[in-house]
Hints:
Shape: globular
Strand content: 15-25%
Amino acid sequence: MPAHFKVYDGHYPHFVTSATIHWIPAFRRDYYFRVMTDSLGYCIKCRGLILHAYVIMPDHFHLICTQTDGDLPQLLGNIKGYTAHLVAEKIRQEDRSSWVRAIERAGGVWQDGYHPEQIHSIKFCEQKMRYMHDNPVRAGFVTNPCDWKYSSAGFYYEDRASIQPLEVIDW
């Protein structure tokens, strides 16, 4: 991973991106989305994850998050490991053979690593939030970013409840 895409201090908020191997749209059904949201919820309750914003797409996710212990890389590795196990098992149960072969060849559900960028200003944070919240619109899933269920857009732009507890960054 290039040096400029490294977590230098996990106590600060980071914009994080991670994608499935070969960009396989593994998170197309509610069960798979719940695996991801349940993992985030557990990490919020038990592992010190502070979630500021998020979007979960069929083949990747974006988070703006902080980890209270400052070990964001380990926490993200745990999230990806846990979700990979459950997603791979469900894909095998459903006998989605082409996906099973791709996962087995690649050795997992997620691409190696992740792409972290430290949030260093309000302007940078707002830019990243707009980018991530507009993902479902750019993909053609919705016309209004607030209509994507697995996103914090509704919380920020229409004062809706989020499926995950969110903490607004205190500048």
